[in-house]
Design goal:
By secondary structure, the protein is an alpha/beta fold. It has six helices and seven strands.
């Protein structure tokens, strides 16, 4: 809501959701937020992941980090039991790093990404919205998505 007051946003060009990254050895152990009761979950300060964790993982300890890299190091070293973060970020980390895995995808936490433009700049907003619509209509968006985004 705060962002919507500070800027106008285009139609959504990307849908995201939260996920939990855990050490591979713990994949079967942590399959729900409830299974993390009494455990420590890392989140990045000021993100929707932090908000989601504080509202929904009330029986876990939530540890906020300023940098994503610090969260991942804390997971690898055993300081935290999981990292709650956008799915694409966690998935990429798991794929590249090899010793962690996404154990939970919270698909009921949709977030829509759009471009921000100065409030009242309807000309630019219309141009961007038309571009997004055209890219989706002619299949270009799907081609780009399939090539660059992890699903």
């Amino acid at each position: 809501a705060e962002r919507e007051e500070a800027a106008d946003f285009t139609q959504s060009y990307f849908d995201a959701f939260q996920s939990l990254l855990v050490r591979s050895a713990d994949e079967a152990k942590y399959t729900t937020l409830e299974s993390l009761a009494g455990k420590t979950i890392a989140v990045q300060t000021g993100t929707t992941g932090e908000t989601f964790a504080k509202e929904n993982a009330t029986s876990s300890t939530i540890q906020s980090f300023d940098e994503a890299s610090a969260m991942f190091l804390a997971l690898e070293s055993g300081q935290v039991d999981g990292v709650l973060q956008d799915y694409l970020i966690n998935k990429e980390r798991a794929d590249k790093q090899g010793t962690s895995v996404v154990s939970i995808k919270f698909e009921d936490t949709p977030e829509q990404y759009g471009f921000a433009v100065e409030t009242g700049n309807t000309a630019l907003l219309e141009i961007l919205n038309k571009g997004i619509t055209d890219l989706k209509a002619d299949g270009t968006y799907k081609t780009i998505y399939d090539k660059y985004f992890i699903g």
